[in-house]
Amino acid sequence: MFLRRRLLSTASAAAGAIRGPPPIRVALTESSSRGVFATRPVASGEHLHSAEPLLAHPSPSLHHEVCYSCLRRKAAGEERGSSGGGCYFCSDACKEHAKGFHDVGLSVDWSLFDDHCSSYEDLLSAAAASVSCDASVGNALYMLPSFYNHDCDPNTHIVWLENANMKLKALRDIEEGEELRICYIDTSMDVHARQKILADGFGFECRCLRCLSGD
User: Fold this and answer.
1) Sign of the dihedral through C-alpha 198, 158, 140, 18
2) Axis-axis angle for helices 99-106, 2-17 (nearest 10)
3) pLDDT (tens place) for every residue of the chain, 215 residues total
4) Residue 111 phi, psi dihedral angles, 5° rounding
5) Helices marked H in the chain — which ranges?
6) What 3 state SS string does 119-181 have?
7) Residue 158: which of 54, 47, 28, 56 has the closest Cα?
8) Is 70 exposed, middle or buried (0-12, 13-18, 19+ CB in 10 A)?
9) Known PANTHER family for this protein (predicted)?
10) Please, what are the domains in the chain?
11) Could you point out which of 2, 56, 59, 209 has its C-alpha 20 to 30 Å from the C-alpha of 8?
12) Residue 14 and residue 23: Cα distance in Å, rounded?
């Protein structure tokens, strides 16, 4: 029930932000099952869409410094905020918003994680986006952004400004019908390092033009 409410909330927020036909669409691809494509020409630097996370969680060491719900950092000099279970919330609204999964987390015996689930930690990291404003503050799961495929020479990138709400922007001019791709890793690494991280952490061999050229 909580996840259903969250999906409806996210969809409503996205619909409210759209003016005119959306600039993107999800479609099937030959190599990656599904992908996101431009429905019209896109200019470099254009903001294509925003998305709220379905779920977000701060890094364990930052529970007292980052909002448990929206991942907004505590402002310098801020002493108080809504709290619960040893976690920081930047507002009562965020505390209420996170109630569905925060209360579940408080009731769990997390010592069982090391015994039974630690081998799946890398899979979770691969499925979730690492939210980085000035530095990584946590992880979040998104609906539409989960369809963006990888390229080591991407034409779009995701930015986070002050919380877990992501924004997708074009890195260059994009043609109508062109697939929008992001880079899952650090683009400055050499081809061998990129291939290893993508294979080990994401489970695929990258065959983008940059990798095929050996760059």
Assistant:
1) negative
2) 150
3) 444 445 444 444 444 454 678 899 999 988 878 999 999 999 999 999 999 888 888 887 788 888 988 999 888 766 655 555 678 889 898 888 887 776 766 666 656 666 665 554 454 454 555 555 555 788 888 888 889 999 999 999 999 888 889 999 999 999 999 999 999 999 999 999 999 999 998 899 999 999 999 99
4) -65, -20
5) 2-17, 92-97, 99-106, 111-116, 121-127, 191-197, 209-212
6) HHHHHHHHHCEEEECCCEEEEEECCHHHHCEECCCCCEEEEECCCCCEEEEECCCECCCCEEE
7) 47
8) buried
9) HISTONE-LYSINE N-METHYLTRANSFERASE ATXR4 (PTHR12197:SF298), HISTONE-LYSINE N-METHYLTRANSFERASE SMYD (PTHR12197)
10) 2-188 (2.170.270.10)
11) 59
12) 13
What count of residues does the chain have?
Answer: 215
Q: What are phi and psi of 83, to 5 degrees?
A: -130, 160
Say if residues 152 and 204 touch (Cβ distance below 8 Å).
Answer: no
Residue appearing with tokens 């991942």: 71
CA atoms within 13 A on the CB side of 103: 6
